[in-house]
Amino acid sequence: MVRWQRGLWLFFLPSFGLLALVLLWPLGYAIYLSFFDYYLGSGERTFVGLANYADLLTEARLWNSMWTTILIAFGSVGVEFVVGFALALALYRLNRSAKVFSVLLFLPHIVTPVVAALFLKWMLASNWGFVDATLLTFNIEPPDWLGSPVWAKVSVILADAWVFTPLIMMVLYAALQGLDTSLIEAAQIDGAGSWSTLRHVIVPALIPAIIFVISIRLMDVFRFFDLIYVLTGGGPGTATETITIYTYQLGFRMLEVGKASALGVITLIVVAALLLTINRGLNKAYRGGDQ
Amino acid sequence: MAPLTIQQATKSFGGLQVLHGIDIDMNDGEFVVLVGPSGCGKSTLLRLIAGLEDITTGEIRIDGKGVSRLHPKDRDIAMVFQSYALYPHMTVAENMGFSLRMRGESAEVQRRKVEDAANILDLGPLLDRYPRQLSGGQRQRVAMGRAIVRDPKVFLFDEPLSNLDAKLRVQMRSEIRSLHKALKTTIVYVTHDQIEAMTMADKIVVMRGGHVEQIGSPMTLYDAPANVFVAGFIGSPAMNLLTGRIGADGRSFELAGGGTIRFDAPLGAAAGREVILGIRPEDVTLAEDGSPATIKLIEPTGADLHVNLDVSGTEVTAVFHERLSIEEGQAVALAVPAERVHLFDPETEARIAGD
Predict the structure, then answer these.
(1) Which of A90, A284, B164, B249 is 20 to 30 A distant from B128 in Cα terms?
(2) With an 8 Å Cβ cutoff, is A201 touching chain B?
(3) What CA dihedral angle connects B294, B300, B306 and B312, to 10 degrees?
């Protein structure tokens, strides 16, 4: 009765082929390589089973980069979310003319991350950079923004926030636009103050958008590379070395492709587990587990 | 339960004035319907009463106390929104109890009051459901339950039935009516549907362009509309409004488009005077000695027969409750009792007194 549907898989082929080529094949190949001891250029691959994984998981450098990644990820997404949501709420209340500023706020996001990082690097350069020069005119001794282990982390977090807060602001602002205003009015009549309205009405209504934007940003920030690579290169020492920076070092500096692949797979598993947990947690908190 | 007074209320958005000096007195426990075409300011007026918009000038008093500058929550009102505005992530019980929770009532008091309201509205079995699991009519009832729980001085309804299908609308109409009988709380109800206004109201306020056109009981508005607008707005099908002049004998009406309608008694306006003559479709009868007309169109609704008559080029709508053996194109004679005729001044559009 639906004979014509049998041929439909032909339409599915091109997109599936493309997907397989650019997504599934590299993923599969990375998983495959992760079971080998393989130096780039040596041409010789030795099957080592799970040895790469065992090596990595017992290595202090991996755990160090993992914690750095988690700190930077949650730090920057936290800052971005709080500031972005506050800006979105402010924008929601503002009149039309003030909305011009939203475009200005979006500017850092339009700039390519590498360019933004170069710009920030000049801003943060010791003594003669814009930030230091400004602080010094007020006789404030500036910290070593990119040279001290603690301030390097802070700088990286703020740099990421500078670039990506506008994205969160725009997504949440768009979600606020779709909010039924009578919900807020009903809450006002029900006696909810600004804070209660935000907590009990606005945030729950925005949960899908919040989950979306936090997930996207966390996924992104776990792959966080360009800004750090340009700003600190993972230093000082390994103070800002995230998993991706470490993977890059393993693969392209030490040429240990097998081990780098194994690290890639570990990252994938960690990010997937993390996102699932966050998604479940947020859904549960605000929908009583009722999907 | 409280009287509500609106004195000289105006509202402007920027330079645009949308309400022009509204005066309304609502008695304790009265069911007042604000009705008018869209854009007439009825919803804005309701939002002024609720405190969702700031009044520009004038005063609103609930139970004698000026509330114009108070926050919505301090006005002791409850509102049912057109979209129901149920919190989607809360159960029916949580939705209904939200205002009590915000007021800091104990869990025990919340539970008891929610259950009481649920009993009144037959919502008991639905208390643990989420709004998205409810039908339109059930959501409507939850929205009312949320209002009842607060035990306010005044209920405000903003076009609450417009999202329901026709059958449910009729059912909810009588439910709201009987709820009002039971609670005896003052209700201000906004609608654009004149049938809703007629069937539910103790008092109707007809609005147009930010002005009150007439305030009165449903039958007052029907029997003695103050002007052409109210005459045309109240009643369905709408009143026939015919332009022309009173005939020389004072008992006939010369239509502007030609032709004459004769009446059984003097019309109550000077012979030769230009007037707008209003005839309700249901006042038209067919009589052998009436004025000549042709049947243009017959629309049977089942209960009634809607007939479009052509009187020398002017169209007159008639409604007959009895089944008539007539057909389109047939020549008939129409008659209207003179005491059922409404006369309006063509300049001011106001009702001509003394008829």
Answers:
(1) B164
(2) yes
(3) -10
